[in-house]
Amino acid sequence: MIRHLKEKGYTRPILFTQFWEQNSTRMRRRDSFIQAVEEIYGYTPKPQEDIFLIDHSEGINTVSQLKLMRESLRTGDIPAVIGTNSITTARVYHGISELGLSMPGEIGLCGPEDWDWSNELNWPFMIRPHVTTLKVPSTEIGYRAAERLLQKMHQTDTLPQEISLPCILNARESTELR
């Protein structure tokens, strides 16, 4: 996703996330964001410049964070926000709309979790512009989890194992800057 944003001309990838301390998926996505920006853009992302927290229960709303993000931009920066999950991405979408920003002209938006449950109910198609997402291989995740569980049941000394599965980028209008 980061490589896609750079190829499209975005100069500033931004991560919007919720608190990650008690959520390994959010933590992993934040760490992956930092690593990818370092590798592809050549700098280390910083909190309150490149990584923004939202938590409506704590009063940290999306619009205020988008405003802070815009204040942190340098002249010539073209930001693209990555939401850590579909909820965060949808909140950012609504915040962008509320602020009247043009997408993809002034800001790009993308996020993970294009679960592809049904083409008719797939949330990235329900809004305009359609949102760029990563398709998560949910069926394969289920198969792998079941295999590991069965293996653990029969071999209790089996060590934990992390399995990474490839995702598919679905580039759509929200990041089509060029």
UniProtKB/TrEMBL annotation:
The keyword Amino-acid biosynthesis belongs to this UniProt entry's keyword annotation: no
Pfam family, one: Peripla_BP_3
Transcriptional regulator LacI/GalR-like sensor domain: residues covered: 2-175
SUPFAM superfamilies (UniProt xref): Periplasmic binding protein-like I
Lineage: superkingdom: Bacteria
A single GO molecular function term of this UniProt record: transcription cis-regulatory region binding
InterPro entries noted in UniProt: LacI/GalR-like_sensor, Peripla_BP_I
Record keywords: DNA-binding, Transcription, Transcription regulation
Name of the protein described by the UniProt record: Substrate-binding domain-containing protein
